[in-house]
Design a protein that fits this description.
Blueprint: E1 12-15, H1 23-28, E2 34-38, H2 41-45, H3 48-58, E3 62-66, H4 75-88, E4 92-97, H5 99-113, E5 125-126, E6 136-140, E7 152-157, E8 162-167, E9 175-178, H6 188-207, H7 213-239, H8 244-263, H9 267-279, H10 283-312, H11 322-339, H12 354-362, H13 376-384
Helix pairs in contact: 4-5, 6-7, 6-8, 6-10, 7-8, 9-10, 9-12, 10-11, 12-13
Length: 388
Amino acid sequence: MMAVNRFVLNNISYHGAGAIKEIPGEIKRRGYKKALVCSDPDLVGFGVTAKVTDELDAEGIAWSLYDRIKPNPTIQNVKDGVAAFKASGADMIVAIGGGSSMDTAKGIGVIVENPEFEDVVSLEGVADTKKHAAFTIAVPTTAGTAAEVTINYVVTDPDKVRKFVCVDVNDIPDVAIVDPDMMASMPAGLTAATGMDALTHAIEGYTTKGAWELSDMFHLKAIELISKNLRDSVKEAKAGKPGSGREGMALGQYIAGMGFSNVGLGIDHAMAHTLSAHYDTPHGVACAMLLPIAMEFNKPVVANRLADVAVAMGIDTKGMDSESAADAAIEAVRKLSFDVGIPTACDGLTEADLDQLASDAMSDACFPGNPRDASHEEVVGLFKKIMG
């Protein structure tokens, strides 16, 4: 008999160039009066945020800006955002940005409706919030995190030098606007890093302990789309001419999010969160460096699934046994990473840090989902593989 599995998705999502034009209508028909726009200072500076706020202005929708958001957002960023929401008189949120802006907005939205969690720290893991977050429209500007469709967000605790994952069905944005035009300003390095984050979501989601048929469908399609489009997307970013690669990545990363948000991830993400907390390594870069290493580690228990990954990546596996096909998938991931310019070693990582890094990774919310159990010594060994 099949176990009971839960699936949570946005109420509404819009996909395709020009999708941001749907935002004012979604706000007006629900009767909301004022938006807190959560975005980061760079996006505001480059005029990306204005693409959305211009649409609000054109329809006479009031808004207030909160942009005190740094990459790997902190507890304080969330607290300041809650204060900004209250001070502004806003009754809903529009999040514009990558994972950092959307994660901050999720924390703000949840606390506004569930003030007993205002310390932020108590939201770690699966928090017992009673009410859904403030009405939120999420507009991603990177093709990777899929924060617009997930029930997860990540906050950094600088005092303890750690990132903690919050999992809450009440935090999912009500509406997602996946408009490739909003991703047009992504530089090549960020395009590569966020794209590899998306591939990690799809591969870890497909091999995680919680994987099942409904999530498998999303993950295999996401692996196919990302493998087909990431190289082109990076080339387009270098040339400053977004095209079909960017469009394919916008869709691929969202589909990956539809899957992994509902089944969890694994050791790659647990270790990547730890690297970002200790060395400020960009999340996508950390995921990408670790992906072939994690696949290799998990191969003894998921070779058949990694063989499916090879097929989804476009590899002809005819005549290969599952072991060889799994190896081909790992090699294909290595090559893709190399082709889009991802480093193979983590700056700043030293022998002295290994013990602490392994302990932190093992206490991360993503760690238990890994298909193969890992000891402290094994995690130390995996971190060693990315030492410079």
